[in-house]
Write a structure and sequence with these properties.
Chain B: It is a multi-pass membrane protein. Chain B: Belongs to the binding-protein-dependent transport system permease family. Chain B: Keywords: Cell membrane, Membrane, Transmembrane, Transmembrane helix, Transport. The complex is a heterodimer of chains A (about 425) and B (about 300). By secondary structure, chain A is of the alpha/beta class. Chain B is mainly α. Chain B has a single domain, classed as MetI-like (MetI-like fold). In chain B, helix 2 crosses helix 5 and helix 9 packs across helix 10. The chains are: A alpha/beta (about 425), B mainly alpha (about 300). The interface between A and B is medium-sized, with 31 and 21 residues.
Chain lengths: ~425, ~300
Amino acid sequence: MTETIAVKADRLYKAFGRRPHEVVKKLKAGASRDAVSSLGTAAVIDASFEVRRGEIFVVMGLSGSGKSTLIRMLNGLLDATSGTVTVAGQSITGISAAALREVRRKNISMVFQHFALLPHRTVIDNVAYGLEVQGIGREERLARARTIIRLVGLDGWADSLPSELSGGMQQRVGLGRALAADTDVLLMDEAFSALDPLIRREMQEQLIELQAELGKTIIFITHDLNEAMFLGDRIAVMRDGRIVQIGTPEEILTDPANDYVAQFVQDVDRARVLTAASVMEPVRSVVTITGGPRAALRTMRDLQTSATFVLNRDRSFAGVVRDRDVLGQVKAGETDLRAIVRTDAISVSPDTPLVDLVEPSVGSDLAIAVVDEKNRLLGVIPRVTLLAALGNVSTNTGDLPVIEPPATISISVITETLRDTALEGADL
Amino acid sequence: MNDFRLPLGTLVEGFIDYVTETFGFFFGFIKVVFDGAYEFVDLLLVSPPFWVIVLLAAGLALATRGWKFMAGSIVGLLVIVGVDQWENAMDTLALVLVASLLAIAFSVPLGILAAKSSVASGIIRPILDFMQTMPAFVYLIPALILFRVGVVPGIVATIIFAMAPGVRLTELGIRGVDHEVVEAGAAFGASPWRILRQIQLPLAMPTIMAGVNQVIMLSLSMVVIAGMVGAGGLGAQVVASLNRIDVSLGFEAGLAVVILAIFLDRLTAALGTGDTPVGRILTARKRRAQQALAA
């Protein structure tokens, strides 16, 4: 399969009640959800999205927002009242029951909120269930199930009954059952919502690892924004049956489509979602290493800071110089900045979550440097920027005044030194 | 107003007459089949000496509940022998077994149908209410006309009377299976038949077995009534004792019914929970075999 789109939903509507088609017709004509409530309940209204292969696509919304209905339309457990669902290039809307079963066996499996294990079967028989339905012989399916059991960390529990397992372990069985079926797409319906917070975090991390290893396409339903932000490559936010925004976690956080989303993301654990790249500031006090101490000193004086970032000739990040050291060099008539560059400045990659920046930021009075994989300086994060971002002071952190480390030597001293040591007196 | 009367009874009578004339051959066929089934089971129970049956019952008791139930069963059955009601009791047991098996054979599929389709449920439910609340004697009248005196009208009346809880509890059991588990079956591409066989029936089994237990109990309670139309067995003894105001015979035959009832009730209740001594041994053995295979 070469398509890049694993699952596609096109203008999906789902209405329950006595006259669902009437409801959809009115909605399409522009009626509101409340206006049609006498005819039936509109659970999903005009939902369109594409899920790319290998992506974790999270559908997030509060209970009653229609997300469970939406996910059940993706594998045909519920029929769409209007619109089409395409799985692996094949439309599953209006196909025969037998063809639909075939799609479920081959292309799309599901993990359930309350695990939905077969209580009368052992763990291994549960994991092998999808394979059994696919008609694979007992020996082979048990062998494959055993591999999956190891993968999800249930070694030694194969012959236990689900009731003998803790909630987290039961959901590993549920996950194992979906993985064993070996479909490209995994639907996960509030899969971790019934678990303890600690177990939930552990399962989320394991899911990300498994996804990286197996490259499955995962459609994950949750009402927990932190979970959505942690897992999702992209997130669709649902409200009252409609998808109000689709975007990456950062887009949703920094650029909410409306007040509802903005209010929703207010409480999110921003430290885990926002990355260094999303809050960093342009670098202002920077000199190249070949510029010499006089240029460095002048930069610091102009910006009134006590330190400046230093770049190598190839623009890669070299370190930081302090005003005292530079002043000393200038007075001594030395010209090589290399001698005084401090390489202990903290540099991080753009993908580092803010939570990992707090400690280094507190331990240093310098801004944190953000560098790419070629060690080029992309931006800096002064402590005040970090605090502002964590505290959600403003969604546009760029407007904040940047306070560089304050100058420790008075401007007049610097100016005097520069004048005294000026070779030609040309600089000033 | 005084001379107006709804001719309901006359209508039903006309209907039964019509049915008797038109479908006589069909009811003749049913009579032969039911009679044959009863005679066969009765032969199995009556022909061996009583201790063979007592031992068999004791074995069943041990396998399903353990030695206490076994001891109780042996004592109870020996009491029946002691009051000289053994053969009657076996006749009754044969009637109960045949009637219950047939009632279960009809009621479980009907219950499944009712669970799968709300329309079917809506039709079946009032019919069950009717069947269950109509005084049982009333069934005997058309049954007598259709099948003549003997065991068969007793069996038919018993089936009709005893079916209702089998249907109801099967429907309840299947509808009560965790919706998500059924969804899981569908989500992995299982056919409705496979979901029924592998998920709904096993998970509904305790409730269905409670229904089976009720069917058997109701069958036993019909035994005396069946005795009135010549079904023989303990029921005939009770009817005879009633006619002769014979307290001692009445008590002995009645006690035999009670002993049979307790035995059958405890036996099927244990099967319903699935937690039987034999079941435990089998599970442990299966597990050991699987672990050996895995190692």
